[in-house]
Amino acid sequence: MASQKAITYTPGELRLGATKWISNILNLDHEWSVLNTVGTIQNAHWSNNSVKGDLHIFKGTTAGRDTIALIDSHLVNSLSVELRSEDVRDYDNGKLLATDIDFIGCAVIYGNNGACPLAKIQE
């Protein structure tokens, strides 16, 4: 279930989880259906203080070709990761902190609708 609470993802925890991917599926708009699966995330790693990876988009599907065209046209550039974590309360700062992060997949999304506005397809 997706969280609607503000959770802090520290660089240390993201670095530890950067290569822990339960599934590497790339989908559209967080829709987990076979027709919205457009590719995979490969070579996930920690670099320059962020989680990075290579997007392999399937050219053999209409959705994959359309996604590539939207990216190439600079109409779509945002990603939103799908993950699970153990969240602990930092009582001193009044925040929830994500720990033990496992990535589940990633979604290509329109606009800046992801939780992190820095999550981009192209820099």
Question: What is the element layout, followed by pairings?
Answer:
Elements: E1 7-8, H1 11-17, E2 21-28, E3 37-47, E4 50-57, H2 62-72, E5 78-90, E6 95-109
Parallel strand pairs: 1-6, 2-6
Antiparallel strand pairs: 2-3, 3-4, 5-6
Structural features, described:
With 123 residues, this protein is mainly β. The protein has one domain (7-109). The protein has helices spanning 11-17, 62-72; strands spanning 7-8, 21-28, 37-47, 50-57, 78-90, 95-109. A hairpin with a 2-residue loop joins strand 3 and strand 4. The radius of gyration is 15 Å and the shape is elongated. The model has no long low-confidence stretch (mean pLDDT 91).
Distance between the termini: 30 Å
Low-confidence stretches: none
Instruction: Write the element-wise H/E pattern from the N-terminal end onward.
Output: EHEEEHEE
Overall pLDDT level: 91
**CA gyration radius, whole angstroms:** 15 Å
Overall tally of structural domains: 1
Question: How many helices in DSSP terms?
Answer: 2
Number of strands: 6
Main beta sheet, described?
6 strands, mixed
Give a summary of the structure in a few sentences.
The protein has 123 residues and is mainly beta. 15% of the residues lie in helices and 46% in strands.
Keywords:
single chain, elongated, 2 helices, six-stranded mixed sheet, 46% strand, 123 residues, mainly beta
